[in-house]
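Notes from hallway chat w/ T.B., transcribed later so I don't forget. T.B. wanted the structure written out for a chain they're using in a teaching module, and asked if we could keep both sequence and structure tokens in one place. Agreed to drop them here.
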Amino acid sequence: MRKILLLASTVFLLHGCSVFSEITALRKCEFRIHSLEEPRLCGIQVSQKRSWKDFSFLEGQQIAATLLNSSLPFDILVNLEVRNPGSRLAAVNTIQWIAYVEDVQVAQGAVIQRVEIPPSHGRVLIPMHLQTDLFEFLEKGHPRSMLNFALSLVNVKDRSSQVSLKIKPSVMVGNRTIPYPGFFTLTKEFSAGD
């Protein structure tokens, strides 16, 4: 019985050291917005649109009908890059995020999955799907920010908008979540032609 307890406590201690090592390694990791892909406005792919003239008649009708219903749905794939310059494996189990367009909060969510970042400058991309209704922000008194963003979606006069993410990664220790000590902000300029 004594050998079993000794073995169990050794396994628990080694597991605890492994998790502590992952937390320490995560603190050294570098986060950035790698890319913004597949922007869709009212379900229409807008990454290849260069001006309003590039929208077909049917696409224009689709946007107008959606606006008449007090809605302007927008979604985009945000690829978050995590680099590990350290010598130990880093891991993250959850990433809470809050998205901003031109300093206006437009969406929030979480990626809940274990992601391991290999040591020695290893990197991983974590896809995050941002979905929001821009009409809501037009009504709330942010029309200039949202208009600038809408124009950047179709690359009118080479406009760009600033997209920011506040993120907070967390690691699981046993069945308990240990969050990063606070949110930190990542920013990227966005235009549909990129």
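Follow-up for T.B.: The first strand starts at residue 30 and ends at 41. Might be a good example for the class.
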